């Protein structure tokens, strides 16, 4: 029986609101924006999922997102554009992508249904990651699990 929060270790998540580097939260002045990016201590984001967001209705040029990402390359686990919820989902997906599959090989797995982080998209990604390696896959509790997959018996 697998509880995803016990098996998956998502990286920490940080949000960088680029509107804080805009004049009045709305106008990008290149010189000031570049200075703010230069002053950013990228080491604070080491190993994290960093979501770049703009909390105002400002329209930013593509190079602004790219410039901040360039500053974080090599320290952040991943940069993305999005809000805190998007970043949490991305962190769980990153954890699934980096999951050690070995403990699941040829096992019968029940994914616990209570308090699943990230909802359906995380469960779907988990199924895609482990199904090729397991004998069987179910969802719920041992006493009332819903069968999802059973590997066909190929020895016949």
Kindly describe this structure.
The protein has five helices and six strands, in the order H-E-H-E-H-E-H-E-H-E-E. It is elongated and about 65 Å long. The protein is α/β, with parallel strands linked by helices. Helix 3 (62-72) links the parallel strand 2 and strand 3 (78-81). Helices cover 32% and strands 17% of the residues. Helix 2 packs parallel to helix 3 (62-72) and helix 4 (84-97) packs parallel to helix 5. The chain starts with a helix and ends in a 6-residue tail after the last strand.
Protein topology:
Blueprint: H1 4-7, E1 13-17, H2 30-39, E2 49-53, H3 62-72, E3 78-81, H4 84-97, E4 108-111, H5 120-130, E5 136-139, E6 146-150
Parallel strand pairs: 1-2, 2-3, 4-5
Antiparallel strand pairs: 5-6
Helix pairs in contact: 2-3, 4-5
Using the CA coordinates, give the radius of gyration: 21 Å
Beta content comes to: 15-25%
Whole-Å distance between the termini?
A: 28 Å
Helix and strand sequence: HEHEHEHEHEE
- Globular, elongated, flat, extended or rod-shaped: what is the shape? elongated
Please identify the structural class as seen in this structure: alpha/beta
Number of strands: 6
Give the fraction of residues assigned to helices: 25-40%
Strand order of the largest sheet: 1-2-3
Q: What is the mean pLDDT? A: 92
| Quaternary state of the chains | single chain
Low-pLDDT segments: none
Main sheet overview: 3 strands, parallel
Count of helix runs: 5
